[in-house]
Amino acid sequence: KAGVTQTPRYLIKTRGQQVTLSCSPISGHRSVSWYQQTPGQGLQFLFEYFSETQRNKGNFPGRFSGRQFSNSRSEMNVSTLELGDSALYLCASSMGTEITYEQYFGPGTRLTVT
Amino acid sequence: AQSVAQPEDQVNVAEGNPLTVKCTYSVSGNPYLFWYVQYPNRGLQFLLKYITGDNLVKGSYGFEAEFNKSQTSFHLKKPSALVSDSALYFCAVSASSGGSYIPTFGRGTSLIVHP
């Protein structure tokens, strides 16, 4: 099976702009989660989608949003970018939304905000 | 609130020696514990998990972890380290709260295996 894919891999944006990141989960996986990874804060959970519904949400401002399509592909949007949004954004998929499922991560999108 | 601590930012070990990467956690209720590994410029890869049952869990690439409820620990171990094991290791915990859960990851431990 193909792994989790994320596009684009690298992105440079200017403060105030918005950005959309895309994630395609492993075939058959219906749960998609998003994380922000930074050297200072580590890996922080953004949100999880399952069957096109947001099931869990981390402690991030409303500028961070996401959605999931019927084919389980997911997008994450960040509006009004700030310098502090520079990070590696990781997408992860799993078989379901059960707490016991392990997650499979994509390679990430490296976002740089200037 | 749940939390995970990885007390060592970096662990150095010689190839062939046993390795241990430490993890302690704090949750309300039953913990579900995971170890992931991240190689440079790659996403995280699942190594192993503890859900219930045997306290010693075996995972990928010869890694194992021991769940210790009294010490709230879930240390990652390997009997004989390889240079290729050098990577960033993350411990994670999930616990159900009101029907939902948010997985919490540790800050990561950089493992360096010297030839």
Question: Considering DSSP H and I runs of 4 or more, what fraction of the residues of chain A is helical?
Answer: under 10%
The major beta sheet of chain A can be summarized as:
7 strands, mixed
Q: What is the multimeric organization of the chains shown?
A: heterodimer
The biggest chain-chain interface is:
A-B, 22 and 24 residues
Order of helices and strands of chain A: EEEEEEEEEEE
User: How many helical stretches of chain A?
Assistant: 0
What overall form of chain A do the CA principal axes indicate?
globular
Mean pLDDT of chain B: 92
CA gyration radius of chain B, whole angstroms = 14 Å
Low-confidence stretches of chain B: none
Strand content of chain A: over 45%
Cα distance spanning the termini of chain A: 37 Å
- Beta strands of chain B, count: 12
Task: Please render the helix and strand layout as text.
The complex is a heterodimer of chains A (114) and B (115).
Chain A: E1 5-7, E2 10-13, E3 19-24, E4 31-38, E5 42-50, E6 53-57, E7 64-68, E8 74-78, E9 87-94, E10 104-105, E11 109-113
Parallel strand pairs in A: 2-11
Antiparallel strand pairs in A: 1-3, 3-8, 4-5, 4-9, 5-6, 7-8, 9-10, 9-11
Chain B: E1 3-5, E2 10-14, E3 19-21, E4 24-26, E5 32-38, E6 44-50, E7 56-58, E8 64-68, E9 73-78, E10 87-94, E11 104-105, E12 109-114
Parallel strand pairs in B: 2-12
Antiparallel strand pairs in B: 1-4, 3-9, 5-6, 5-10, 7-8, 8-9, 10-11, 10-12
Write a brief caption for the model:
The complex is a heterodimer of chains A (114) and B (115). Chain A is an all-beta fold and 114 residues long.
What can you tell me about this protein's structure?
The complex is a heterodimer of chains A (114) and B (115). Chain A has 114 residues and is an all-beta fold. Helix content of chain A is 0%, strand content 53%. In chain A, the strands form two sheets. In chain A, strands 2, 4, 5, 6, 9, 10 and 11 form a seven-stranded mixed β-sheet that branches. In chain A, a hairpin with a 2-residue loop joins β5 (42-50) and β6. Chain A starts with a strand and ends with a strand. The relative contact order of chain A is 0.33. Chain B has strands at residues 3-5, 10-14, 19-21, 24-26, 32-38, 44-50, 56-58, 64-68, 73-78, 87-94, 104-105, 109-114. In chain B, a hairpin with a 4-residue loop joins β8 (64-68) and β9 (73-78). Chain B starts with a strand and ends with a strand. In chain B, 37% of the residues are buried. The A-B interface holds A 4, 33, 35, 42-45, 55-58, 90, 92, 99-100, 102-108 and B 32, 34, 36, 41-46, 49, 51, 90, 94-96, 100-108.
